[in-house]
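so my prof wants the structure for this chain in the tokens format not the other one, which i didnt know existed until like an hour ago. anyway here's the sequence
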Amino acid sequence: MGVLRQRTHQKNTTSSHGIKRTKKHPKTTIASLPKDLLVDILAHVGSSSFIDVFNAKQCCKDFLEATEEHYVIQRISIDKFPMIPWYPQSDNVCSFLMNCFDKGNPESLFRRGIIDYFEKAEVESGMEYLKMASKKEHTEATYVYGMILLSQGDRMSDQGLKLLNSMRNSLSRCWNVDDCRNKVRHILNTMWVNNTISVQEINMECQKRDHGVHRLRRLDFNKDEEVESCDSCMWYREFILFCRILNIYL
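here's what i got, hopefully its the right format
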């Protein structure tokens, strides 16, 4: 990441003897910005490119300190690092990823949660990390956490429906269920799935949930086909698709 410089403004003046003099204004650099603004810039850069932030921290002490701020680490992208590495990672990479986890990076929390829940069968810790990532508006974490809540029935299912609907209706995020499901499928394909959820544990009949008389005609998620259904019906159909993904890897 190169250092941005503001062009030097020159102003020509003429002395009483007719000699032209050039007055130069001092140069300014991005490093001279207030720290809060510098942190915001690096956080924005880091959200799409880990490498650019890594290069930035090599520039000067101010950049190095700014890249270590919680706000930057929480938003830095770790997509370039595999969730399940095939080869041992260097000490620097391990240290960086652990720093992301310790400082609450949403993607890092999501990864720990999905590994704990589905691969290690550590249900409580897996649920907690997925919940933490969901609160930080991590799309895939919200999807998976919502599916798990749906599987638990009764009050927990109601919480899952509320969470998933709030995610879908959010104007600040682009919600695409198909893309989200496909990403989760790819993640599960890289690990050993030793824990699952069952569609048989919950009641899928909309009439029994007193939704039959309130059905509306609306678009079913991303599809162009209109279906006569309520929000609950649509999410429970999505839940069935999610369960089918899990059953493939068992």
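also thought this was worth mentioning. Confidence is low (pLDDT under 50) at residues 1-9, 207-220, 224-228.
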